[in-house]
Amino acid sequence: MSTAVLNLLPTVPVPAIKPPVEATSLTYRDLERGPFWQKIPAYREVDEKQFLDHSWQAKHTITNIAKLLKALEGLVSPAFIADAEEGFKRAPMSVRVSPYLLSLIDWNDPYGDPLRIQFVPVASRLLPDHPKLDLDSLHEQQDAPVPGLTHRYPDKALFLPLDTCPVYCRFCTRSYAIGLDTEGVEKVHLRANDERWRKAYEYIASRPELEDIVISGGDAYQLRAQQIEDIGMTLLAMPNVRRLRFATKGPAVMPMKILTDDAWTDALTKVVEKGRALHKEVVLHTHFNHPREITGITQDAMNKLMERGITVRNQSVLQRRVNDTPEIMTQLVKRLGHVNVHPYYVYVHDLVKGVEDLRTTLDTALYIEKHVRGATAGFNTPIFVVDAPGGGGKRDAHSYEYYDRESGISVYSAPAVKAGQLFLYYDPLDQLSDTMRRRWADPAEHEVMIRLALAKAREHVR
Ligand SMILES: *Cc1c(COP(=O)(O)O)cnc(C)c1O
Ligand code: SF4
Question: Which fold does the domain 149-399 belong to in CATH?
Answer without folding.
Answer: TIM Barrel (3.20.20)
